[in-house]
Amino acid sequence: MKFSEEFKIYFPQFTREMAAKAGLKVMETKEPSLLLDGKFLFLGEVPKRSDFEKGMLLAHCVEDNVEKWDAIEDDTSIVMNLKEKGLVILSGCAHAGIVNTVTYAREVTGIDKVHVIMGGFHLSGPMFEPIIDKTTEELKKINPDYIIPTHCTGRKAVAFIEESFKERFIMNMSGTKLTFT
């Protein structure tokens, strides 16, 4: 990821060979795909449709020795339908936007009721803090039973979401165990 010419973050390379050596099977798809006998849905690429969630505009990658903008389209979510409760949506970093992610999960599954939204909402830092209010407003319209922002959501956003959702907010930390039945 490149923030400027002077400040770049390099992530270690991950190859198919490394995955195979670890005993993993790589499945590549842009489309939603069912996992574990249809119990979970891999959401695939999440379209950016909201007018305020624009993605990671500073992200770059190098392909064939050429630097280019990286849309980070491989950041996705896992979705399940908890019987009679609604969708449980577990996001990665939601680089496409958590509202776009939840909207797409509802569209793909045909299920409007959302029980839990959990994961990274990527609302930290000067590029994303300006949309905390709008994101929270839209999440309130979705009306999940529980909301659990994690890792890359950012302290300001977590505090704002906690205040906005009150008893529906669950703080998640390393070692937290949650059971939804």
Tell me what the structure shows.
The structure is a single chain. The chain is α/β, with parallel strands linked by helices and 181 residues long. It is built from four helices and eight strands, in the order H-E-E-E-E-E-E-H-E-H-E-H. The strands form two sheets. It has a six-stranded mixed beta sheet. The chain has a two-stranded antiparallel ribbon with strand order 3-4. Strand 1 and strand 2 form a beta hairpin. The longest helix is centred in the middle third of the chain and has 12 residues, at 98-109.
What's the overall geometry?
globular
Number of strands: 8
By helix and strand content, what is the structural category? alpha/beta
Largest beta sheet: strand ordering: 1-2-5-6-7-8
* Oligomer type: single chain
Note the total helix count.
4
Low-confidence stretches: none
Report strand %.
15-25%
The overall average pLDDT, rounded, is: 89
Distance between termini? 39 Å
Radius of gyration: 17 Å
How many strands, what sense, and barrel or not for the largest sheet? 6 strands, mixed
Would you list the SSEs in sequence order as H and E?
Answer: HEEEEEEHEHEH
Helix content, binned percent: 10-25%
Provide key terms for this protein:
181 residues; six-stranded mixed β-sheet; globular; alpha/beta
Write the layout of secondary structure elements.
Layout (H helix, E strand, L loop, with lengths): L15 H6 L11 E3 L4 E3 L17 E4 L2 E4 L7 E6 L3 E6 L6 H12 L4 E7 L11 H11 L3 E5 L4 H11 L16
Parallel strand pairs: 6-7, 7-8
Antiparallel strand pairs: 1-2, 2-5, 3-4, 5-6
